[in-house]
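User: Hey, my collaborator sent me this sequence without any context and asked if I could get a structure. I don't really work with proteins. Can you help?
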Amino acid sequence: MAPQIVIKPGDQKEYVFEIPKDHSPGLNFYHPHKHGATTVQVITGMAGAIIVRGAIDEVPEIKAAREIPLVVQDVGLFPSETDPNLWTYEPVQNAMWQTFGGYVTIKGERTKLRGGFTTGDYQLRYFLLNGQAFYRETHNDKPGEAQDPVGAQLPVQRFQMAPGEVVRFRMLNGASDNMMPIIVDGHDVHQIAMDGVNFPAVRTIPARPSGDMSAQILLASANRSDFLVKASSTPGIYRIRQLAQNQQFLVSAEKIIAEIEVTGPPKDMALPGKLPIPERLYPLIQPSEIRRIRVIQFTGTTPALINTTVGGDYLINNAIYAEEEVPIVVNLNDAEEWHLSVGMSHAGGIEGHPFHIHVNPFEVISINGVAQPPGTIQDTVWVPPEGVVVVRMRFKEWTGKSVFHCHILPHEDVGMMQNFLILGPEKAGHAASHASSSTAQFTTSIHSVESMTPNTSTTQPPVWPICTSR
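Assistant: No problem. I've predicted the 3D structure and written it out in structure-token form, which is a compact way to encode the shape of the chain:
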């Protein structure tokens, strides 16, 4: 297969996005997608939100509501190698930051470098809301203590609401690796969309009582959620929080993201009921339409057997990413069911991974055997440790080569990604002949990748290579 598109330093390329008339309106996400450098580019600011307007914005109760974006991102930093007064993130080729130890290696040898590529923490990291820092993490340098970052809550933005007012919050988890269980203190959350696709009806998630640590909405890296909040009749300060979670390599501490101040003369704004049907993705896929079932498993090995420079292997179906190999071939307009799981990592523990696919979204059918409400359509879904997520998708309109991957960006950069190819009707027979190998539970072939080369789908226009989530 041909290599993927890259725009080299000093070059430029212009793209025209022709949005299909039946494209779902909603909140989307864009960022560079240069394989091996995605994390560095995203965590230094090359990412953002895109809003597509449409029918859901004309629902009277939604149109009447104020709209507040909640764009969460992170910035990772190390001391500059050349300027003692500067913090930056420009890792030297093959330099690896060792979270457990706090030093940098190149191909296993310890160096005097102050920073490097990391699959763990940073010397210094800030979490931002709409560009303003709300939480700080620093590396734990104290021997004998837990290796999790040392966190510090910073002042947060405060949004005022009148009692009984309805506000539409549009939240993007644009962080490079952090899974966020979200809760709004003291309030029901009325969710209307995930990943840029609205539900057929509002889903109300009740307020959590004191001591209840279950999330109202779970946002993996790249997930987006639109939800309505009707302000309490009781004036006061209420927090929007990320709950603490330990489903990743390092513990993610609780973070206060923002505050809602309920104040002023009361209102009595209405909430919507039914919502417009996103025509492009309906009717939903029925079991009888499934042409193929595949098993996609996130796996890994620590210490590394393949990627010894990194020190850990981050794999899908036991294979590391190879730019010009296509392990999965599908037919245009076919519907498939994919079973996503996390395999045991040898000697490295186990953590969850967000599965993300380009071009077409999927319907989430079940998580750990629990059926999800019909019409839960996403392009990214958190696959919990030792969990199984079942999704269904139809490959519509576009043909060509694209990718799916873990959306923990450091994992993607070091190999937790695979290509897939969508074939049109004239080549569908090839996909059928390929199915015997590509539909096995997982391949045992392992491929070494020496070069870090660009990565984008033929349908994903880049500046660098760019990923647009839908």
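In plain terms: The chain has two domains: 51-93+121-262, 279-447. You can pass these tokens on to your collaborator as they are.
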